[in-house]
Each structure stands twice: as structure tokens, then as C-alpha cells.
Amino acid sequence: MANSLNWGLLSTARINRALIAPLQVSRRNHLLAVASRSQETADAYAKEKKIPRSHGSYESLLADPDIDVVYNSLPNHLHAEWTIKAVQAGKHVLCEKPLALSVEEVDAIKHAAHQHGRIVAEAFMYRHHPQTLKALDIVRSGSLGALKMIRGSFSFMLTREGDVRLNPDWGGGSIWDVGCYPISYARTVAGAEPVEVFGWQVEGPTGIDETFVGQMRFGGDIHAQFDSSFVIPFHAFMEIVGSDGALNVPHPFKPGADETIYLTRNDKTEAIRVRGGELYIGEVEDMADAILLGREPRVSLDDSRANVRVICALLESSRAAMPVRLERENF
Ligand SMILES: NC(=O)c1ccc[n+]([C@@H]2O[C@H](COP(=O)([O-])OP(=O)(O)OC[C@H]3O[C@@H](n4cnc5c(N)ncnc54)[C@H](OP(=O)(O)O)[C@@H]3O)[C@@H](O)[C@H]2O)c1
Alpha-carbon distance 185 to 187, whole Å? Predict the structure, then answer.
């Protein structure tokens, strides 16, 4: 059995920068190739980033027999299509968030992955960071008492004209781009799926939600509130409140090497330091664990499906100006 994996980048997206360094230092992962819609772009990118091979089309990368894992960093509307094509070509796929834009697309990915025996995981890098694991430990240990409220936010100023996030037909909008993080965080902390959601959106000039404000009601009297925006300067946090205390996480989604989270109980606040590594190494090593060691990826397809389902329900609620109930599902 192979003990290392050759990776190929599907596109020259800006986010690739985050993965190139972890891939180039990893013992079990090797960055072998990049693909672009143009051979010229692929060649220049490969030269600049010291990537051994360049492919002038996405099809050509998928046909490369030496590639084991594809990193899908395409715009959101192409995630499902190219993840499925990659799986059908025998590749494992780490796909950027959101994995897809509908539950039906996630189901098609799941079906293809199952049929071809390949691993597909959504690149929610924050889920692998020691800070997130520590926050979950604190919640699960009962230190906060019974979980009551979860709040979170993720915003930044999107000023780049023509950015793919501004196109409503391409899965643009703040909830798909950054709202997906506090939603994912809240669902993970609650360890359950919401039974009802309510959302409001402020529509921007291109027809996407430039700001989204949402609420989720879980069973057992647990509620979550979040917001996301492209018109508020960078702002992110998570707060988890229970019957006996609260946990504040100032940098929940892009934590660094040295972080502090704050646990407040009985009017006393304890600062808890968490040493973390490079943020994006976790998702790369998790893929290697899944492919080489047969472990379940930390972000399962059922988990991604549930996140997509909640985002779709929130968007539906904001359009209808009504709460949307979610049927319980057995995954
Ligand atoms: N996890 C994170 O921290 C994080 C951060 C940022 C973004 N993301 C995700 O990563 C993905 C890419 O985001 P990005 O900002 O890096 O994208 P980007 O810089 O706009 O790049 C997207 C790439 O997709 C390719 N592409 C194929 N068809 C295209 C089309 N019709 N229009 C434009 N580009 C097209 C292009 O590559 P070629 O020209 O080489 O073919 C382009 O470079 C998104 O899904 C986003 O949600 C994740």
C-alpha cells in the first residue's frame, strides 16, 4: 500500500496559497501538479510555486494517472460538478467550502464517492485546529452546564470588482462564503441539527445577500444566532453559553499558532491558551489519514450535507420572510 499521496490543484485560485506550504512540507503528501483553463497560466503558476507538473485543462489533470488527490478550489457553482468528475476519474477530493449548493448535489457527490470508493471531504480547515478541538472538549466536559445559546459572526469587506462571490448564479453571497462557518461551528458545538431556522438578508447590487442574519433553533432549548457580511470590516467570533458558564472564542475560523479562549464561570474568567500549528495542515493530514489509514474524515459528507441543508433553509426563510422547519433526518 502506498504511504504517500500526490496532489493536484484544480485551478490557480487565490486560496491555493493556503495549501501549497502545508503540502510542500508534509511527509505523506506531495504537491505534484496544477491545472488551469489555460496552459500558459498553469505553466507560469507551476514555475512560480515550484510545482513539478502543469496541466492546461482540468480534464488533463483528472487524466493524470499519478495524481491521487485533487484539491477543488473552483468557484462554488463548480464544486459538485468537478468533485464528481474527479471521483469518477478515480481521485480522492478535498473540496473547498461550501461542498455544494444544494442537498441534491451533495447526494450526487456521496453517491459517486461510494460508487468509486473514493474519499471526499469539505475543506473546513478550522475544524482540525487544536483550538476548535479544545472548545469542543470544554463544551462536552459539561464545564458550561447545559448548552443554551451559541452566537457567531464572520464578516469582511468585499471590495474586489467582479469577484466570484458577487455572482448570484455561482453560489455567491455572504452566507455561502462566510456564514457557512458560524453555522458549521454552531451545529458542531450543539452536536445536533436545527429543527427550525429564520433568516433575513440585505440584498446587494448584484442580487447576492451582502449581509445575512440568521437564527437556528435546536432541540432541548438550544438557540443559535449568527451574521455574515461583505460590507462590514473583518469581524469574527464565536460565543458558547451554557447554564453554568460561557466560552468566548475570539478567532474561531482562522486561528493561529498561539491562541487564547476565555472561559467564564461564577463571574471569573479564565484565559486558556491553545497552541496550534499551521491552520491548513489539519485538513491535508486528515485526508491522508482517511485515504492511507482508512479513518473517517473529520468532516464527513453527512456533516457537509447537513450544513448545506441548513444554509438552503435559511435562504428560503429569508426569501419567504417566514421561519422554515427542518424535518429530522436519519443520516
Ligand atoms: N477555506 C478558506 O479559507 C477559503 C478562503 C478563500 C476561498 N475559499 C474557497 O475557495 C474557492 C475559491 O475561492 P478564491 O477566492 O480562491 O477564488 P478565485 O481566486 O476567484 O479563483 C477561482 C479559480 O477558479 C477557476 N475558474 C474556473 N472557472 C471560472 C470562472 N467561470 N470564473 C472564475 N474563475 C474560474 C480559475 O482558475 P484558472 O483560471 O486557473 O482555471 C480561478 O483562478 C471558493 O469556493 C471559496 O469559497 C476558501
Answer: 6
